[in-house]
Amino acid sequence: MTAAHEQRRLAALHEYELLDTPAGDELEAVVRVAALVAGVPFGTLNLIDENRQCQLTTTGFEGADSARTDSMCAVRFETGQVTYLPDASLDLAYTFNPWVTGLLGHVRFYFSAPLVTPQGYALGSLCVFDEKRHELSDEQIDRLRDLAQVLLGLFECRRQSRVNAELATEVREQHDELERAHADLGRAHAERAATIAELRRSNHELEQFAGVVSHDLAAPLTVVNGYLELLEENIRGSDEQSERWIGSAVRAVGRMHRLITSLLSYARAGHAPLRAEPARLGDLVDQALNDLRGHLDGATVVVQPDLPVIEADPTLIRQLLQNLLGNALKYRRTDRPCHVEVGASRDGGQWRVTVADNGVGIPKAQRERVFEMFAQVDPSAGKGYGVGLSTCERIVDRHGGRILAVETPGGGATVVFTLPITAS
Questions:
Q1: Distance CA 119, CA 121 (A)
Q2: Are residues 241 and 376 in the same domain?
Q3: Distance (Å, rounded) from C-alpha 50 to C-alpha 70?
Q4: Which of 37, 84, 155, 381 has the most CB atoms within 10 Å of its CB?
Q5: C-alpha distance from residue 237 to each of 109, 136, 231, 234 (Å)
C-alpha cells in the first residue's frame, strides 16, 4: 500500500474515535458471539493504527496492546480477504510470529475477518483463535463474515450518533440565538434584516440535519438490525446466553431508532411547509387515539363532544395531539386508573385546547423547562428522550399560539395550547 493510502486509512480509523475508548456492550456481545459461532474459546476485535495493534475488546483472555510488527492480523488485513488457518504454525507467514511461537501466545487455529469500510479502508479485524488445531464449516465462515459487517455497522452508528449530537447542539444554539435576536427586533431595521437572514440559515441547517438523521444514521441501523435478526434465527434454542446478548443488541438498536425518529419529527415540525385548512379537531383527536390504541392499556380517554373546527395544518396538529396523548398514557400513576380528558373552548380570538391527565404530573419548577430540547422530568425513568414536548412547542409556535403546562386539579398534568381562530 502507498504512503498516501495508509494516511487516508489512518484518518478513517481515527474518525471513528474507537481507539483507547470503552468498547461498549454491543461490540463486546458481537465478539462473544463470534467465538461461539466458531466454536473456540478466544475472540478479539483488533484495530491497527500506525504502530500498534489495539485489542479493543476480547473474550476468553485479557486483551492488551502490542506492536503492529508482532500482530498476526496486520500481516494480511489490508488485502480485505478472510484469513483461515486450521494450524497457523504451518503457514510461513505466521510460523515465527510471537503469537504462535509462545512468546506472546500459542496460537494454532486462526481466523481473521478484516473490517473494511465501504470506502475500502481496512481498520482492523474480527479474530477468533484457539491453542489447538480447529476447522470451520463454510456456514461458520459465512456467519463470521456477517459479524464483521455487524461490527462495521455499529462503528458507523457510533460515529453518526456523535455527529448527530454535535448537529443537535448546534441547532439548539442557533435556536437560542434566534430567540435572543427576536427579542431585539424592535431596535433597528438593520437588526431585523440580520435576524431574517439568520432564520433562513437556521432552517437550511435543520433541513441538512434531517437528511443526516433520516439517511446516514438510519440506514446503518437497518443493516445492523437485519444481521442481528439473522444471528438470532441461527442461534435460537441452542444457546440462551447468546440469545440474551443478541437481544441486548437488538434493544439498543431499537432505542437509537426511536431517538432518530423523535429528532426527525422535531426537525420536520420546524421547517415543513405549513398548510393551514379547516379541520375538525375531534377527527384529529380520534386519529391520534387510533394510532395510540396499543398504548391505552385500560386507560379512559374522555373527548369533549363538541370540539370546534380549527384553521390549522391537520398533519402537524395530529402530531401535536399524538405527542400530548402519548405522554398522558405513558406517565400514568400506579395507584389509580389512568384517566385523560380532551377539551376546547373559545377564549377571545383564539381556541384554548386542553389535554388533562391524572398521572405523575410535572413539578412546578420544571413546567417551563420541559419544553426545552432533551429536557426530562425524570431521566432515570428511561421513558423518553425529551424531544416530544419540544416538538409540540414548535408546532404551536408556527401556528401563532402558545403552549404551557399546569397542574390538573386532584393531581396530574394539564397541557394547554392556543390556536388563533383566524389563521395568521
A1: 6
A2: no
A3: 13
A4: 37
A5: 27, 21, 12, 9
Residue at 153 is within a domain: no
Residue 152 falls within a domain, yes or no? Answer: no
Domain, as residue range, for 65: 3-136
Q: Do 292 and 261 share a structural domain?
A: no
Residue 424 has pLDDT above 50, yes or no: no
Question: Using CA atoms, how far apart are residues 68 and 268, in angstroms rounded to an integer?
Answer: 47
> Residues 101-129: pLDDT tens digits?
999 999 999 999 999 998 999 999 999 99
How large is the average pLDDT for residues 330-357?
A: 94
343: pLDDT confidence band, cut at 50, 70 and 90? very high
CA distance 270 to 75: 52
Distances (CA, A) of 218 to 160, 162, 210, 258, 418: 9, 14, 11, 10, 34
Whether residue 144 lies inside any domain: the answer is: no
- Asked if residue 414 and residue 287 are part of one domain, the reply reads yes
Tell whether 7 and 77 lie within a shared domain.
yes
Same domain? 257 vs 166: yes
How wide is the angle at C-alpha 327 spanned by C-alphas 323 and 333, nearest 5°?
Answer: 165
Report the alpha-carbon angle 176-177-181, nearest 5: 120
CA distances from 198 to 41, 58, 168, 208 (A): 58, 49, 17, 15
